[in-house]
Amino acid sequence: MKIITRCLSSPPSITKDDSVNSPPDKSSIVLPKNKRSRKMRVCLNIPSFHPYQITSNNLSCKSTELGQNDELILQSPTNPLEEQDEDIHLAPVAEILKFLYIGNERDAANKDIIDSLAITHVLNVTSHLPEHFKSSGIIYKRLPANDSSQQDLMKYFDQAFEFIETARKDNGKVLVHCQAGVSRSVTVTISYILRKSYLNAYEGYKFVKSKRPVASPNLNFMGQLMSFEQALNKGEIERQLEAELKFEVLDKN
C-alpha cells in the first residue's frame, strides 16, 4: 500500500469542507513514527465520510513506504488526538440503547456504576483488562483485540452480536468497554447497530457519536465497518431487524 505522508512542523487542524457535496477520496490521521515525536499525516480512502479539509502552515509532502519497524497508531479523522485527551478522561458511561452502554476501563471497574445501571453483561474488548465482578454474577465475554492498524476486529463481530442479543432477549443490560471507550468498543457497538438496522457505517458512527461524543474508531476499524456494511447489503450476512429499536441519525452539517 502506498502511503502519502505529510511531515508537519506544527499540528494541523481539520475542518469540515461544506462546499464539497460528493464523498471525499481521502481522510487524515495523526501518528507517531518509531516512537519519536515526529508527526506525520496519512491519507487513506474512506468514501463514506464527508469531506474534510486539512489546513496547516509550513506543510511539505512526500511519498513513502512504511518500514518493518514503523508503528501505525490510527486516529479517527473526526477527532484529532490532541483535542481528545481531556474529553476522553471526563467522558461518562454512555447509553447507546436502553440495554446497551459504552464505557472505559474505569467504568468497568466501578461497582457503583455497574449496579446503578443494572448491568448484567460486560463485553470486554481488550486482551488484558480484568473481569472485575465475575464472582458477583456479572456475565463476561472477552474479545482479545488491540487498537492497532493490524487488528482484525471484524472477526469478532458475530461473537459480539450474539452476546449482546442474548442479554437483550434476557432483559439484561450490556456494558461494552475497551481501555478508553473510544475505538474498539465503539466499533463493536456500531457493528451491532448495522446488523439491527439499515444504517450505513457512517450513519451508525454518527448515531453512536451523538450518544458518546468521544467515539472515534481508528481508520482500520472504520474500513472494517464499511466491509461489514457491504457484506450486509450483499446478503452475505443476515440482518436481524427489530421494530422496537429506533436509530435516529441527526445530520448536524
From TrEMBL:
One of its GO terms (cellular component) is cytosol. Gene3D superfamilies: Protein tyrosine phosphatase superfamily. Its EC number is 3.1.3.48. Transmembrane segments: none annotated. SUPFAM superfamilies: (Phosphotyrosine protein) phosphatases II (SSF52799). Residues 151-213 form the Tyrosine specific protein phosphatases domain. This is protein-tyrosine-phosphatase. Residues 10-32 are annotated as: Disordered. It comes from Dimorphilus gyrociliatus. One of its GO terms (biological process) is negative regulation of MAPK cascade.
